[in-house]
Amino acid sequence: MNPDKEDPNNHVPAVSPDDDWDGLDVDQVFDSQLPPLRSDAPRIPKMDVNLSAFKTIYLDRHAGEAASIPEDVNHKSLASSHVNVERPLIEKESFQVALVVEGLKQVDVSAQGYERPLPRRRLSSGERHDWGAIPKGSTRWMLYAALGVIGMIALIMILSHFSGKKSDMKLNNNGLGQVERVKEKSEPIRDSGVLVELMNGHREAIQIYGRYAQAKSENDFLKSIYLSEQNAPLVKDGWKSVGAKSGWMPSDKASWQSHRDGEILYAELKGVNHNFSKFLAFFRYENSDLKLDWKATTGYGTASFDKLKIGEGDGSEIRGWISPSDFFTQQLPDNKYHSYIFRSTSKDASVWVYAEIGSQVDRNISALFSTSLITGEYQTEAGVILNLERGNQAILPRQWMIKNLTAANWLDLATP
User: Fold this and answer.
1) Pairwise CA distance, residues 245 & 167, whole Å
2) pLDDT in tens, 273-329
3) How far apart are CA 348 and CA 167, in angstroms?
4) Position with higher pLDDT, 157 vs 297
5) Contact 385, 406 (CB under 8 A)
6) In 172-200, which positions are buried (b, 16+ CB within 10 angstroms) versus exposed (e)?
7) Is the Cβ–Cβ distance between 182 and 243 less than 8 Å?
8) Spatial CA neighbour of 409 closest among 267, 201, 226
């Protein structure tokens, strides 16, 4: 290592010849900066007390006389020795052990049982038990409450399903009122076997609708429709091919639901056609054979909605979906009429229909949208058959007056 070589990392300044290090007095530096040695520092003077030079003062408690004190003893040393020596002697002499141990009794610790402190939780439970406030198991009460709710829901569903009551509405002068249930005698089904057969007719209904969708002419399915002889002229005039290929059948997953309207039993088959369009087919029993209700399935009407929109056509038997509306005109104000929108079965066209407030037809239609007293449910639209008429010529072409609510379903009104 070369000591003469400059180090760029060395920041210590170089020593110059002018620096006078040889004349430095090291002893002077230490003497001026460091504190003095401990051995040389001044100390507190010691007190030399010669206890043998005097006699300890002894107070005679009985005679009250003091012992003689030599004259050459300092009074301050005497007082100091009196404080430091005489007091412990007096306290030691006056201490009596009998007074300390008096009243103590010997206790046999081994005879006592060792009791562990109870946890806080146990003490709290014991206190609740003493006050009679021990909580019972919440799981049991939750189970009882759940069973009660389930039972109530099941009872409501049973009552709503088998209830044969119909609703009616009382209206005041302003057209507002409360819903009242009109009790009607429910007649039992004459043949309970028909209901069982209808519930089990899912597979047969799929086959019937499959043949109807594949038909190339009305003769291919005419015998499988409800009241075929009576409806044959209507079928020839209004039938349109579904267009399904030969061998096509609806899916087995198509829903099948049975319904009852008074004494009439019918079922609905809901599914998807070959072109992915939805279908709704109605089935009824004619004698002992399951038949397709062609009028209900096709939404047959005495006039098409294209005719109704321009104020033309025969409105005596029109099937469609009805729901409340708020479209009023000067000729049909809201203080005299209730407004409804009436859509076709495929819901691709619509007209407005009106019922005079307080009339029988208005009460019948209003009852369709009333709230059920049992379940609290209500519907916003209903599939009905209406008897329409034009009424006043001053109304708009798409406005029709409701002459009668023919049926609250789309079923064929004719009976075998």
Assistant:
1) 46
2) 999 999 999 999 998 899 999 999 999 999 999 999 999 999 999 999 999 999 999
3) 30
4) 297
5) yes
6) eeebeeebeeeeeeeeeeeeeeeeeebee
7) no
8) 267
